[in-house]
Amino acid sequence: MFTGIIEAVGQVQEITGHGTNKTFWISAPLTSELKVDQSIAHNGVCLTIEEIKAPLYRVTAVKETLDKTNLGSWLVGSYINLERSLLPSSRLDGHFVQGHVDTTGLCKSIKDCNGSYEIEFEFPEEHAPLIIEKGSICINGISLTAFGVQRTTFKVAIIPFTWEHTNLQYLKEGDKVNLEFDMVGKYIIRKQALNIM
Q1: What is the CATH number of domain 103-196?
Q2: Which residue blocks in the chain are alpha helix, DSSP H?
Q3: Mean pLDDT for each 10-residue chunk of the chain (197 residues)?
Q4: Can you tell me the distance from the alpha carbon of 197 to that of 83, in angstroms, rounded to the nearest whole number?
Q5: pTM attached to this predicted model
Q6: What is the CATH code for 8-84?
């Protein structure tokens, strides 16, 4: 379980393929604090640390993960948002994030608002019931608040701290991002669906 509050930005240093899997070596400021078998959210995707050779560590993404996220488009040099799993004693500053990405979204526009940034994203219509005005949304592992919600688009406002301390500063129009919708909303939609049947 995660909170969507990014701890560090890592960088992909090496990518290798093994069958349908991809293995990534990533450098990060917090590598010395990590342990093998720990769960770390990478752009919101929960992956297990397999090996550590400071300042690098290794993770692997299987076909299912590559198909549903933007990990398949990572290149050597890509910047990755990182968050370690939630401790029972931690404050929940964002919202409950599972690290199980629902789909990818597309960056439609980035607007510099002279002190903040406004970013608009497009997402698949099938997920429309899972996002609401002023509701929580996890984008590349970052807990954010959606506004201007339409059937297949929404916007988020980015404060300077988040811009400077995440990989949103490298985002370009047309880039894919990982989206995880609020877990509570998923349970509500599931309950409604079962009541209808």
Answers
A1: 2.40.30.20
A2: 63-68, 160-165, 183-196
A3: 92 96 97 95 96 96 94 97 83 78 97 95 96 95 96 96 96 97 84 73
A4: 39
A5: 0.88
A6: 2.40.30.20
